[in-house]
UniProtKB/TrEMBL annotation:
Residues 1-18 form the signal peptide. The keyword Hydrolase applies. It holds the Pfam family Glyco_hydro_43. It comes from Friedmanniomyces simplex. The keyword Secreted does not apply. The lineage of its organism: Eukaryota, Fungi, Dikarya, Ascomycota, Pezizomycotina. Transmembrane segments: none annotated. One of its GO terms (biological process) is carbohydrate metabolic process. This is Beta-xylosidase C-terminal Concanavalin A-like domain-containing protein.
Amino acid sequence: MRVNTTLTVAGLAGLSLAAPPGYQSKNSTYYNPIIPGFHPDPSCIFLKEWDNTFFCASSSFLAFPAMPIHASKDLVNWKLVSHVQNRPEQFPGAGNITNSGGGWYAPTLRYHNSTFYVINADVDAPTEGTGFFTTKNPYDDNAWSNLTLVDVGGYDPDIFFDSDGTVYSQAAITVLSNPFTTEIQQFTIDLPSGNTTPRHFLSNGTGVQPPEGPHIYHKDGYYWLLLAQGGTALDHQVTISRSLHPTGPWELDPANPILTAINTTSLFQTVGHADLFQDAAGNWWGVALSTRSGPAYINWPMNRETVLYPVSWPKGQWPVADPVRGKMSGPLPPKNLNVPGVGTFVKDPDYYTFPAGSTLPRHFNYWRFPHLEKYAISPPGHANRLRLSPSNANLTAFASFDPLAGQTFVGRRQTDTLFTYTINMEFSPSRAGEEAGVTVFLSQDRHADIGVVYTDGAPHLRFRAEGPDAPATIVKPMPAAWCEKGVSFEIKAFNFTHYSLSAGPKGGALDTFALVNNSILSTSFTGAFVGPYATTNGRGESGTPAYFGNWVYQGQGQAIDDGQYYPSNGQKGGGLYSRDA
Ligand SMILES: *[C@@H]1O[C@H](CO)[C@@H](O)[C@H](O)[C@H]1NC(C)=O
Ligand SMILES: *[C@@H]1O[C@H](CO)[C@@H](O)[C@H](O)[C@H]1NC(C)=O
Ligand SMILES: *[C@@H]1O[C@H](CO)[C@@H](O)[C@H](O)[C@H]1NC(C)=O
Ligand SMILES: *[C@@H]1O[C@H](CO)[C@@H](O)[C@H](O)[C@H]1NC(C)=O
Ligand SMILES: *[C@@H]1O[C@H](CO)[C@@H](O)[C@H](O)[C@H]1NC(C)=O
Ligand SMILES: *[C@@H]1O[C@H](CO)[C@@H](O)[C@H](O)[C@H]1NC(C)=O
Ligand SMILES: *[C@@H]1O[C@H](CO)[C@@H](O)[C@H](O)[C@H]1NC(C)=O
Ligand SMILES: *[C@@H]1O[C@H](CO)[C@@H](O)[C@H](O)[C@H]1NC(C)=O
Ligand SMILES: *[C@@H]1O[C@H](CO)[C@@H](O)[C@H](O)[C@H]1NC(C)=O
């Protein structure tokens, strides 16, 4: 371990820096993850010229709008300020992916010549989906450009603006599918055309497969190549090498991997896919993804979240990162919630009643492109309701599913280890197969639902889960009066390993149908969402709509170590840096 050296070196560096007015030079405590819930592959920058603001992009796979941009003034409170792809026209192929594990993988966010760039690959898009988006206003969805294609393939592309005007990109290129093997290749990009030079081998990092997630930095006369290696599970690690030229050859840091959770008992595992940036006071910071699974790696439904760690990077020397834990200390800027834009802070609870004239909050997501006519707020005769009109496809869909046909579902990320989600529904189905309810949803292959379904000539309450090891379906008759009077649903993560799914008459006692081990949702690349859905289960695109009211999501605790929690924002007792504090 190199913890002691870290302390000394960073301590000295801290002393030698004159913090600008309003910036801390003393340490304070903060908690990981800084952007909780499904927010993997973070790429972050700090911009003095944007009022001393930090911006981060993360992966979204098939969730839409895609590639959230969060902004913060204090590194702890992060507001959702836009999504890079928020209109199908920016890249129509993103709506057209059949593989439920495809979509927008790791983006790189950079700023050059007063323009924000996000370069990314839309994996499994039926047409080539690598390229970049630009904006001059990260607070406005509409300001994000269409995709400019960069015809190179691969995934995890980086963009690096060299001082001589050359724009380099490096990406993970698959050289063998089985066993999965990649190498980092490099090319240059002409702006604004997106034309490229031929790719060539750049690095294999330390050789641990697969090298991915490259980022290049220029500092102290060296080019530094940061990589993710070992794959995104328990062997994930961050390595660095340096060169006098952006094209190599690369000298490896003898201390590699510079950051990993391998061989630790920390709750925070799979640490990797990092990015580095400097704050206004000159302190270096890193972000990475991490899974709150502990080494057992069984229960991790939120999957890969964004974590923050201080970095000591003295002139001309290798950077040294503090290991990622739940409770951290570092020279944070002072608390500042004054972030522009209309989005919510990622740790905020939800209390939504869908009044007329309101719009769905920015952090609500669909799965692939939505058919917006299926979602209506306070439609005539149904004030303060969100109306969902059913899709032909249910949440699982089927092999011949046309992804552009859409699935009626809208959800928000699970952002707390413990939470309660409740919603009311009025729904009077009259045809076999008509169904509406709520789900905790990881992907089409993995979800647990509780809803009302018309079957055997009457509406029934049904619990159903999809995925290997899913508990058995439970169907119970339901009094017909509940259709119009309303049903209440609750999905609760009541401990580290289990959800309960409950239903009952609106305003009455709820009956718990099932306890679901969240291990059935702990897989692949995405993390859990909760929200309502409506479907005809394959009986066509038209059917009885469902009306939802009183959407409440409240966090009830964030795990920071084995059995240790700190309060969620808005929770009685307050979280640190809570907005309600
Ligand atoms: C974006 O793409 C759409 C559809 O391809 C096109 O109609 C629109 O003009 C494009 N926008 C810009 C700014 O190029
Ligand atoms: C969707 O994919 C199909 C099959 O590859 C293709 O024919 C169609 O043009 C695609 N549509 C869009 C909008 O990309
Ligand atoms: C900077 O952007 C402006 C237009 O936004 C463009 O005219 C100029 O060429 C760009 N400069 C560089 C160095 O990219
Ligand atoms: C990089 O790794 C790949 C996959 O193992 C291998 O095919 C390639 O030869 C390596 N390249 C170099 C220069 O070592
Ligand atoms: C993890 O432990 C094993 C066994 O002691 C060791 O071989 C390996 O190098 C360690 N890995 C790291 C990254 O420390
Ligand atoms: C502040 O935190 C950094 C990062 O952990 C550490 O390197 C430094 O020694 C700490 N400074 C003090 C004064 O404790
Ligand atoms: C959560 O509750 C379930 C059901 O009571 C129980 O089986 C499980 O052991 C609990 N998990 C933890 C971490 O306490
Ligand atoms: C959850 O399921 C996993 C996988 O089947 C199992 O290993 C684990 O013991 C279960 N946890 C509990 C608390 O039942
Ligand atoms: C989901 O839809 C598919 C395709 O229409 C159908 O085969 C399947 O039975 C449906 N699932 C349920 C639970 O109805």
